[in-house]
Design brief:
There is one protein chain. By secondary structure, this protein is α/β, with parallel strands linked by helices. It has 2 domains: 254 residues, Glycoside hydrolase/deacetylase (TIM Barrel, Alpha-Beta Barrel), CATH 3.20.20; 79 residues. Helix content is 49%, strand content 12%. It has 17 helices and 13 strands. Strands 1, 4, 5, 6, 9, 12 and 13 form a 7-stranded mixed sheet that branches. Strand 2, helix 4 and strand 3 form a beta-alpha-beta unit. It is globular. The mean pLDDT is 95. The structure holds zinc ion. Zinc ion (ZN) binds next to strand 5. The site of zinc ion has 5 residues, from strand 5.
């Protein structure tokens, strides 16, 4: 389908959803026995501390956006439950009406700085799936930082050979060219991974060449994960800290995969002081080969990036979620809360 037609179809679908909502369709489905036998698990990643959402609206939402989503939950009478309790109730058939779970992936520092105050204000529990490598190694996540730096410099056209590894002139306004260069820079930086100080100096030099304020990126912690002490703090404040592998990887080799989960668990349990038995597949990478390994590791539930509402007879190691982003119109978000999205099969790209 060409883009104009695709956009028109999208427009019509949103209009139809808004019409259904206006006549009380969403409320009716939300209150139904059908919805009561289902659980919606919402997924967020980062919450912006600066302008990260302008760069990557699939990964970062603003605090104001999150507040509006929480207001919709509250005003719609949705019941936000802790993950473990919600999945157990789902299996027993004892969920309250309009059940929802909030999950945040990766363990960003901005969860503590920007999401926790809102969650506490609304009294909502949440699970944070923390990858531990950048938690114990406190520095900005390299891949995100390089991509963001090129976005910050997006008004520039780089002459050939301006940056290391660069292949020809690069127009940073062009997203594809930008992402390609970011991948090259990441590979270059990786070559220095045995010498952290040299790598840091190299990235800060690239930032300087691009005219980007590197010290501000480091100081603002926009791409840092929580420190071990911050993980302990969110656990103390009642938030659930769960598994996301140590290095955000899903190797197909059993012993490497299990090591990723066990190392992650060892670090998180030491900080949170509670068992970490719930898992989230990094980058939504699911392979049936992982399921028996996860069972052996005593993992109780695992969430994916597949869109849908969880059902009592579904596999608890393949729980669907709705990935909420700033690109999702409110009517689509509400269609999923109410169950209408599932019923009418409103999938990604809706
Ligand atoms: Zn992740």
């Amino acid at each position: 389908m060409d883009e104009t037609l695709h956009n028109a179809a999208r427009h019509i679908r949103h209009g139809a959803l808004a019409g259904l909502r206006a006549v009380g369709g969403f409320r009716w489905i939300a209150a139904s026995g059908w919805r009561r036998r289902r659980l919606l698990i919402l997924c967020y990643h980062g919450v912006s501390l600066k302008d990260e959402h302008e760069w990557h609206q699939e990964l970062f939402v603003t605090p104001a956006f999150l507040r509006r989503r929480f207001e919709i939950l509250r005003d719609g009478g949705y019941v936000v439950l802790p993950l473990g309790e919600a999945v157990r109730s789902l299996r027993r058939g004892s969920l309250p009406p309009r059940s929802v779970v909030l999950t945040f992936d990766d363990g960003f520092h901005n969860f503590l700085a920007a999401a926790v105050p809102l969650l506490e204000e609304f009294g909502y529990p949440a699970t944070n799936y923390v990858s531990s490598y950048y938690c114990v190694n406190q520095r900005p996540i390299l891949r995100l930082t390089l991509r963001y730096m090129l976005w910050c410099a997006r008004s520039q056209k780089l002459a050939p050979d301006f940056l290391p590894g660069q292949d020809g002139a690069v127009d940073l306004q062009d997203r594809q060219q930008r992402e390609k260069l970011a991948a090259i820079l990441f590979d270059e930086a990786q070559m220095l991974s045995s010498d952290r100080e040299a790598q840091r100096a190299w990235v800060s030099k690239i930032a300087k060449q691009l005219g980007v304020d590197w010290s501000n990126i480091v100081r603002s912690r926009i791409f840092h994960l929580m420190t071990p002490a911050e993980v302990a703090e969110i656990a103390r404040r009642g938030f659930d800290v769960q598994l996301h592998t140590h290095r955000h990887r899903t190797p197909r080799d059993k012993s490497t995969f299990c090591h990723e989960v066990l190392e992650n668990r060892r670090i998180l349990e030491a900080q949170a002081g509670r068992p970490a038995t719930h898992f989230c597949y990094p980058s939504g990478d699911v392979d049936p080969v992982f399921l028996p390994w996860l069972r052996e590791l005593g993992v109780e539930t695992a969430t994916t990036g597949r869109v849908g509402l969880a059902k009592a007879d579904g596999d608890v190691l393949l729980l669907p979620r709705f990935i909420d982003t700033m690109a999702q119109p409110e009517v689509v978000f509400e269609s999923w809360l109410s169950g209408t999205g599932e019923m009418l099969n409103v999938r990604k790209g809706a």
